[in-house]
Design brief:
- The chain is α+β, with helices and mostly antiparallel strands and 193 residues long.
- The chain has a single domain (19-184), classed as Jelly Rolls (Sandwich).
- It has helices spanning 4-7, 31-40, 85-95, 167-170; strands spanning 22-25, 47-51, 54-63, 65-67, 73-75, 102-110, 116-119, 125-133, 137-145, 148-156, 161-164, 173-176, 183-191.
- The chain has a 7-stranded antiparallel sheet. The protein has a 4-stranded antiparallel sheet with strand order 7-12-9-10. A two-stranded antiparallel sheet has the order 4-5.
- Strand 4 (65-67) and strand 5 form a beta hairpin.
- It is globular, with a radius of gyration of 17 Å.
- Bound molecules: 2-oxoglutaric acid (AKG) and fe (ii) ion.
- Fe (ii) ion is lined by residues 119, 121, 174.
Length: 193
């Protein structure tokens, strides 16, 4: 029997390289900026995430787009709200992409026990930049190669940022297992015109 795959279940297994097109940075914002930002989330129009009658156990507030009943992204042209503007400046600097290229913003609230299942962010999303707030999560990635999954993961710390572009967005799926404590993410998406 080939015991090799078991090695990857061991805690000391060698770290999988992160996918091409994925980048991560700690401390995009300070603890004070994080606190002020989350305090202002009170004013956002959160609603439960729902798709085709399935409730994701998360609450979301989205700007610049909405999902139609087929799950397709419909652009609304609505601007990204002022409360997210300073964060978007930092995200744009982190990604090296133009601030105005980010036309979608989504604030997601994960109560303890909430997560997000395996998916890819579909077009028209091109690049996705996400900022984690309040508590860490295990950000997992996987890609099917033949009959097996290649896997990678990273602990996304509060106040950190990640970028998914290129193959990390188009070829890899991502998911977040149930979080232990309240976590918010702010994701900004560039879109194909
Ligand atoms: O919460 C996150 O950082 C990721 C959320 C996500 O994958 C999505 O909204 O498509
Ligand atoms: Fe996603």
């Amino acid at each position: 029997m080939d015991a090799q795959p078991l090695l990857f279940d061991l805690p000391l297994a060698p770290k999988m390289p992160l996918p091409e097109g994925f980048r991560y940075q700690d401390n995009l914002i300070t603890a004070e900026e994080e606190r002020d930002l989350v305090a202002r989330f009170q004013d956002l129009p959160f609603k439960p995430y729902e798709h085709l009658g399935y409730f994701g156990n998360r609450r979301i507030a989205g700007f610049g787009w909405r999902q139609d009943d087929d799950g397709k992204m419909i652009e609304t042209g609505e601007p990204i709200p002022d409360v997210l503007a300073p964060l978007l400046d930092k995200v744009a600097a982190f990604t090296g992409l133009a601030r105005d290229a980010f036309r979608h913003a989504l604030v997601t609230e994960y109560s303890p026990g909430a997560g997000i299942g395996w998916h890819r962010d579909r077009p028209p999303a091109v690049a996705i930049a996400g900022v984690s707030l309040l508590s860490p999560c295990n950000f997992r990635l996987r890609r099917k190669v033949g009959e097996t999954w290649r896997r990678a993961s990273i602990i996304a710390a509060p106040r950190s940022a990640y970028l998914m572009s290129g193959p990390a967005r188009s070829d890899w799926q991502h998911s977040i297992p149930q979080v232990e404590a309240m976590r918010y993410s702010v994701t900004f998406r560039t879109v194909a015109r």
